[in-house]
Amino acid sequence: MEFYDIQWKKSAERDLRNIDPQQIHRIIKAVESLANNPFPKNCHKLRGAKKNYRIRVGDYRVIYQVDTKTNIVTIYHIRHRRNAYRK
């Protein structure tokens, strides 16, 4: 079984600072589980993007990209569901 490296973009780190501290633990646990399986059953591919996916953690969405050639999962955004898909 291959493991994936998790890389955090600065935008995702910034998003984490604005989240309720009680939710951060759940979000980080969900992101760390992506190292074992970057395509869990609750992930959804985003429309209009080739490699972007999202997972749901409570009211928050983790937007990430998977590079299967280099085994890297890049976390781009962690946002509340009402703001997750706005550009």
Low-confidence stretches: none
C-alpha-based Rg, rounded: 12 Å
Specify the biggest β-sheet.
5 strands, mixed
What proportion of the residues form beta strands (DSSP E)?
25-35%
CATH superfamily: RelE-like
Q: In whole angstroms, how far apart are the ends?
A: 35 Å
CATH class: Alpha Beta
Number of helices, where a helix is a run of at least 4 consecutive DSSP H or I residues: 2
Determine the CATH topology: YaeB-like fold
How many structural domains are formed by the residues? Answer: 1
Shape: globular
Helix content, binned percent: 10-25%
The CATH level-2 architecture is identified as: 2-Layer Sandwich
Provide the structure class. Answer: alpha+beta
- The total count of strands amounts to 5
| Helix and strand sequence | EHHEEEE
Strand order of the largest sheet: 1-5-4-3-2
User: What is the average per-residue confidence, as pLDDT, rounded to a whole number?
Assistant: 91
Write a compact overview of the structure shown:
This protein is α+β, with helices and mostly antiparallel strands and 87 residues long. It has one domain (5-80): RelE-like (YaeB-like fold, 2-Layer Sandwich), CATH 3.30.2310.20. 24% of the residues lie in helices and 33% in strands.
